[in-house]
Amino acid sequence: MAINGTEYISTRGNADVLDFAGVTLTGLASDGGLYVPRHWPQFSTDEIAAMRGLSYVDLAARIMAPFTVGVLDEAELRSLCATAYGSFAHTAVTPLVQLDGQHWLLELFHGPTLAFKDVALQLLGQFFERFLSGTDTKLTIVGATSGDTGSAAIDAVAGRAQIEIFMLHPHNRVSDVQRRQMTTILAPNVHNIAIGGSFDDAQAMVKRMFNDKDVNGPLTLSAVNSINWARLMAQVVYYFYAALRLGGPERKVAFSVPTGNFGDVFAGYVAAQMGLPIERLIVATNINDILHRALSKGDYSVLSVTPTASPSMDIQVSSNFERLLFDLEGRVGATTGARMKWFEQMGKMVLSPEMRKNASLLTSARTDADQMSAAMRWAYGATDQIIDPHTAIALHAARNAGIRPDVPVVTLATAHPAKFPDAVENATGIRPALPARVAQLFDREERFDVLPGAYDAVRDYVLARATR
Ligand SMILES: Cc1ncc(COP(=O)(O)O)c(C=O)c1O
Ligand SMILES: N[C@@H](CCOP(=O)(O)O)C(=O)O
After folding, report:
1. Distance separating alpha carbons of residues 413 and 170, to the nearest angstrom
2. Is 417 within 8 Å of 390 (Cβ atoms)?
3. What is the DSSP string of 307-322?
């Protein structure tokens, strides 16, 4: 089918070319790859400078409009963004907080479920509603979460008539607050499943369902994880928002990003491809450090996942790394497809010196438990900020990255500290309280099923319960 507007292609080069509505509803490409725009849209320095002073909603519509050509114009996008971000507790949506002369936090946790995922998922809920309306399609969402995507996605789609959601989380490996934010939503279209194993196991099962004709055929599957392009697109906006407030585009800004599935930091990479002057993107990992090993030594080999106090980053196989690999090797689907097939069989791959050179905008750092706690203590002692463990991992990396002192460094604050009260209390002695809007969490009834980490069990569960 000819596309009249922005075209999306698979990183593995062997799936239908789709428009924006198509990629939003499809999620994973049929060849197992991830959708990306055929070309990165570009803004000139003058165009970026002219965005200074726009509200978050206006900026979001301006930045995203080139990605939705032929499907949504800027005015339609603006209206969907106004609805999506109307539920945020801060008028700036993603406010900046200064820590010292060089360091800033970009607070991304003012949405309904207290994590950065709301920025994209509140909007994705609007896109789903818009693209399904007037059709008789019933969408079955299958998702995997290490804690935050699950609650944000459930909040975005609970009660929507044409959507049913099945969310897999690793049993006993998310915080109590994270679990309750998912399992206390009792809407009939929400199904929570705790599986034996890690987030990686859950994510692998989700991807397998997309390519299982016994599932994706009888059911129309879609994704809320960052394999869905719309998720990443919405995250590009806050890089522009922060940079414009710190002197961009005339002045370069660096970002430190707590990283697991490589979606958030890839959105920063996209912002740079679009013309935003970025000094550096720091890929901050916890001790599950495959991305640090890949970017610093070229070694992308899977080790087993170790549970940590930053559970949302307890990931080894980072979905969105495939999108970066596609760019680093010249955007040739057959090359990326062959590389990923090899990786799926062998559990490892090597990044050539040439690929690492092409990735020089990105540096990486690994932060261990003691360094994470020390960063939480520093933020509290020196700047009066209580930060969550994921943010602390990136802040530690930011303060040790050796960025020139005249370059502002923005650490992405990806979750509210009250989602991880034990880790925060252990480090700082302060137990952060849940904000009033979610304070009833521990009084509500929970509902979820526990399944073994076996594909057949999960597939059969979904097929038995999904309404068609
Ligand atoms: C609080 C928090 N920080 C950081 C991350 C890592 O982000 P990404 O998976 O986009 O790399 C996650 C999970 O995605 C998260 O929930
Ligand atoms: N940390 C995530 C893991 C899923 O990542 P996603 O960005 O691909 O949805 C989580 O909290 O669930």
Report:
1. 23
2. no
3. P-SSGGG--SS-TTHH
In terms of residues, how long is the chain?
Answer: 468
Determine the residue of 228, 259, 295 to mutate for testing ligand 1's pocket, defined as the one with the most ligand atoms within 8 A of the Cβ atom: 259
Which tokens hold the place of 208?
């397998």
Q: Does the ipTM surpass 0.95?
A: yes
Report the 10 Å Cβ neighbour count for 416: 25
- Whether the CB of 261 sits within 6 Å of ligand 2: yes
For residue 191, give the 3-state DSSP assignment. Answer: strand
Calpha distance 377→316 (Å, rounded):
27
pTM: 0.97
- Give the domains, in start order, of the chain with CATH numbers: 96-113+230-428 (3.40.50.1100), 136-225+438-468 (3.40.50.1100)
Pocket test for ligand 1, best of 106, 116, 320 (most atoms within 8 A of CB): 116
Is 170 touching ligand 2 by the criterion CB < 6 Å? no
Say which residues have a Cβ less than 8 Å from residue 465's Cβ, sequence separation at least 6.
166, 191
| Ligand 1 centre distance from Cα of residue 54 (Å) | 27
Residues tagged active-site: 117
Instruction: Name the 3-class secondary structure at 299.
Output: strand
Q: Where are the alpha helices (DSSP H) in 133-196?
A: 148-157, 176-183
User: pLDDT tens-digit profile of 292-315?
Assistant: 999 999 999 999 999 999 999 999
Euclidean distance between CA atoms 135 and 214, whole angstroms: 23
Of the candidates 133, 132, 151, the one whose C-alpha atom is nearest the C-alpha of residue 143 is: 151
217: left (phi over 0), alpha (psi -120 to 50) or beta: left
